[in-house]
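CHAIN AND CONFORMATION:
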Amino acid sequence: MKTNECLYKNPSISYDKGIIYVASLNSFYYEMALVSAQSLKDWDPTSNITLYTHESFVDERAFKVFDEIRVGIPVFRRAKMWCMANTPYDVTLYNDCDSLVLHRDIKKIYDILGSSDLVFGENRAYAVANKNVIYLDKKKRHFAKWHGSFCLYRKTDLTIDFHSTWYSEYVKQLYSKTWEYEEWANIDWKVFDMFTLGRLVNNFGEFDKFKQLKIEVAERRWNTSTVDTKQDVVGKPVIVQVPKNSTLMKEYFHPQFTTKNTRLEENHLKFL
């Protein structure tokens, strides 16, 4: 199979603006992508949505929801960064599969990019389960405010390089036999791509080339969680990140939605 191969394309798809979902490694992410994309289409039927996944996961339901389906992606827990670097759109919204779109303002999502190069979701300390991964550093000077479950960006050579570097650096971080940041960062961060993202954005002397990027965080309403309250969010929530075992996710749309999961063997090295 070719890398990043187009399995299906709606003839009316437009590549100026669009949303991408990435369902890799576990088929349960494919199920959640179907639900999330359908919730988005309910509010914005004209939206362009591309799914990145594995051909073995795809069934007839996907052709009714997605405008494009691409296969030949890394079998990896964080294939999303590789797929983000290979977006077909001039302006892209990456949205996690385990989410629901709840408001018509999703039609205005691209407006929040403004003059920025990238806009990430906003992280909140109260929404972090592991309290050792709230701050990037042990001295608690650098809060990890950029959340990778949501990323709006325009395609330029530098933003594509950013996502590609995020992917390759995360692979090195995850599979390194040592924790080279022991002096200043908690080892609990080792498995989190948000630490890699923090290194790229905070620029601890590693990635000077990305300093010229204008990177912002979105207002919380654009990417909320189920632990947010009305006091935490200004305005109506547009996207909510939903726990994978949530009954809301299971019951929201697809009557054929299944919690049965097929896990593939990781295969990511050839994509570096």
User: Anything to note?
Assistant: The chain has one domain: 5-271.
